[in-house]
Amino acid sequence: MTTVLSFSFNPVAENTFIVFDNETREAIIFDPGCSTPAEEQRLVSAIESRQLKPVQLINTHCHFDHVFGNAFIKDKYGLKLGIHELEAPILEMAPVVVNMYGLPPMTPSPPADYFIAEGDVVTLGSSTFSVLFCPGHSPGSICFYHQEEQYVIAGDVLFAGSIGRTDLPGGDHQTLLGSIMTKLLPLPDETVVWPGHGAATTIGKERRTNPFLT
Ligand SMILES: [Zn+2]
Ligand SMILES: [Zn+2]
């Protein structure tokens, strides 16, 4: 069994996730958005107090709010960074975008150590996540589906009552709708969606009530 820990970080309230295997204590850190020493410390404390062993660092996509803490986490735990190949240029641009928004400067993320693509399986202890390629919000957005425990780490693809914005470089509304319809909505109703911003929801609830999908 796994446990999902959720944190809200940085000026745009991005959700960072630590997912860990309850037995081995191995952990994947998804989208570390920590942008201040206090936020970094919240992540470190959560890891240390539970005696977790971070084993992977993964970005669902590389908008600045999801990669703010990449350099810190990678360095602190000696992790390899995995992203979708199409996000590499976006990762490189992140510090520039941070400046454009007038936010405090960001320590540039190291480049990816490896690429993740649809069909890959990400292993965590005795668990596996399948990788779903869901472009539209960003060209290389990927979601991580834990079939056995019925949840998906969804990045900025699908939110409670909303969907990802598509006005940023590489975004495309029809592509995003196609990704949601073909990759996420076919998942079972009970599947919990852990989005990149805001509260968790379920596939069934979004299929029935999300105004962008009806
Ligand atoms: Zn985003
Ligand atoms: Zn975001």
* Mean pLDDT figure: 97
Number of strands: 14
Sheet-strand content, in percent, reads: 25-35%
**Describe the biggest sheet?**
6 strands, mixed
As a whole number of angstroms, the C-alpha radius of gyration is 16 Å
SSE string, helix = H, strand = E? Answer: EEEHEHHEHEEEEEEEHEEH
Work out the helix count.
6
The largest sheet has its strands arranged as 1-2-3-4-5-6
The CATH superfamily is identified as Ribonuclease Z/Hydroxyacylglutathione hydrolase-like
Number of domains: 1
- CATH class category: Alpha Beta
Low-pLDDT residue spans: none
Terminal Cα span: 34 Å
- Assign the CATH topology: Metallo-beta-lactamase, Chain A
Helical content, roughly? 25-40%
Global structural class: alpha/beta
What is the approximate shape?
Answer: globular
CATH architecture call: 4-Layer Sandwich
Hetero groups: zinc ion
Could you list some keywords that capture this structure?
214 residues, alpha/beta, Metallo-beta-lactamase, Chain A, six-stranded mixed sheet, 14 strands, binds zinc ion
Describe it for me?
With 214 residues, this protein is of the alpha/beta class. The chain has a single domain, classed as 4-Layer Sandwich (Metallo-beta-lactamase, Chain A). Helix content is 27%, strand content 29%. The chain is built from six helices and 14 strands. Strands 1-2-3-4-5-6 form a six-stranded mixed sheet, with helices on one face. Strands 7-8-9-10-13-14 form a six-stranded mixed sheet. A two-stranded antiparallel ribbon has the order 11-12. Helix 4 (88-100) links the parallel strand 5 (81-83) and strand 6 (114-115). It starts with a strand and ends in a 5-residue tail after the last helix. The structure holds zinc ion (2 copies). One zinc ion binds at residues 61, 63, 137-138, 156.
